[in-house]
Amino acid sequence: MTTVRTRVAIVGAGPAGLVLSHLLAGAGIDSVILDSRSREEIESTIRAGILEQGTVELLDGVPGSRARTVGSRHDGIELRFSGEGHRIDFAALVGRAVWLYPQHEALRDLIAARLEGGQDIRFGARVHEAVGADSDTPAVVATTADGGELHVEADFVVGADGSHSVVRRAVCGSHGGYFREYPFAWFGILCEAPPSAHELIYSNSPDGFALISQRTPTVQRMYFQCDPEADATAPSDAEIWDTLQRRVPGHALAEGPIFQRDVLRFRSFVASRLTRGRMAIVGDAAHTVPPTGAKGMNLAVADVVLLADALESLLLRGDATGVEGFDVRALTRIWKAQHFSWWMTSMLHVAPDASAFDRLRQLGELESVVGSTAGSTYLAEAYTGWPL
Ligand SMILES: Cc1cc2nc3c(=O)[nH]c(=O)nc-3n(C[C@H](O)[C@H](O)[C@H](O)COP(=O)(O)OP(=O)(O)OC[C@H]3O[C@@H](n4cnc5c(N)ncnc54)[C@H](O)[C@@H]3O)c2cc1C
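# flavin-adenine dinucleotide complex -> structure
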C-alpha cells in the first residue's frame, strides 16, 4: 500500500475536479486528483457542449484554454413549435452569450494546463472508499491501474466523482436525496454533415422534441425524444433522419452518415446534503439535471467556485464559516437550475400520456415565452447563466 499526503484529495478528473484543482492551485493549496479512467478515455468522452458565459470567463484563466478560439459564441437560440421558429435573442435581452465548446475539449485544455502546472493526477485510480469525514484527517482509498492500493490522506476530501459517486455515500449516508424520473430519454447522434442552422434549434412538435445542435463545420450533434428503453442500434440511418425531420417541421436538415448514436436517460437529483465535516460533494456527485437546459457542467463549475473560496478560508485562515455555509449557498443556485432544467424539459417534450388539454396548454406556454419580453428574458437569463 502506498500512502500520499496532500491538503485536498479530489476524486474525479471531470470538469468539477479539474476546475477545483485549478482554483486551489491559484490560492497556493496543493491537491491530488484521482480518476478511475485513463487520460485518453476522459479526453474522448462526448458529453456537454454549451458553456455559460461565466464558465467561459473562468476558463479564460486556464493557460491555453481554447474555449473562445475553437468554441463558437452563440447569441441566441431558436424555439420552434407549430412549424415556426422564434429566436430568443440573448444579446438583446440580457447582454450575455453562451459558447458551444465540447466538454472533452475543455477537459483536454484543463488536463494539459494542470499537468503543466505540476498537478498530481492519478489516472486509472478507482476510489472505493472515503473515510474520516468527521475527523481532521479524512482520506480516500483507491486501487491503482497496476492493482496496488493507494491511500490519500488530506485536510479535506472532495467528491467530484460524478453521478455514481462513492464519496456521496460518506457524506449523505443512507439519506440519498431528492429524485425525479422522466418518461422519455434522448436519442443522440453524431453525423458527418454541414450545420443545419447557425444556432441551436429547440423544437417541439406533436411527435415529440428534437434538438439540432452543431459541433464543427463537418460534424453535427442532434437529439430527439425517445422511449427510455429504446435500443440505439435498432433504427436505420434513414429512420433516424425521418424522425428528426418530422420533429423539426418547416426547417430542412442537412443529412449525412451517422457515426455515433446513444440513448441518454433523464434524471433530476439533488443530494440530501453536500458537506459533512471535512468532506464535500460537487457537480454530478451532488446533483444531476436533464440536459435540456444545458446546466450540468456549468453547475459543476459554479459549485467549485464557491467551494474553492470556502476551502481557501478554511485551509489558509482556519475560518470554517464558508464550508459550514456551503450547502445553503450552493443549493440556492442548484435548485434554480433544477427548476430551469425541469421547466425547459416539460415545456418542450411531449409526455407519452399527454392529453389534448396538456398539448394545447403546452403551446400556450410556448407562446407566452416567445410573445413576451418578460418570458423570453427569463429563459435568456437562466440559459446564459446567473453570475458566478
Ligand atoms: C449527452 C450529454 C449532454 C450534456 N450537455 C450539457 C451541456 O450542454 N451543458 C452542460 O453544462 N452540461 C451538459 N451535460 C452534463 C455534463 O456533462 C455533466 O454535468 C458534467 O460532466 C458533470 O461534471 P462532473 O465533473 O461533476 O462529473 P463527471 O464529468 O461525471 O466526472 C466525474 C469523474 O469522476 C470519475 N470517477 C467516478 N467514480 C470514480 C471513482 N470511484 N474513483 C475515481 N474516479 C471516479 C469519472 O471517471 C469521471 O471522470 C451533458 C451530459 C450529457 C451526458
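# post-check
The two ends are 41 Å apart (CA to CA).
The mean pLDDT is 97.
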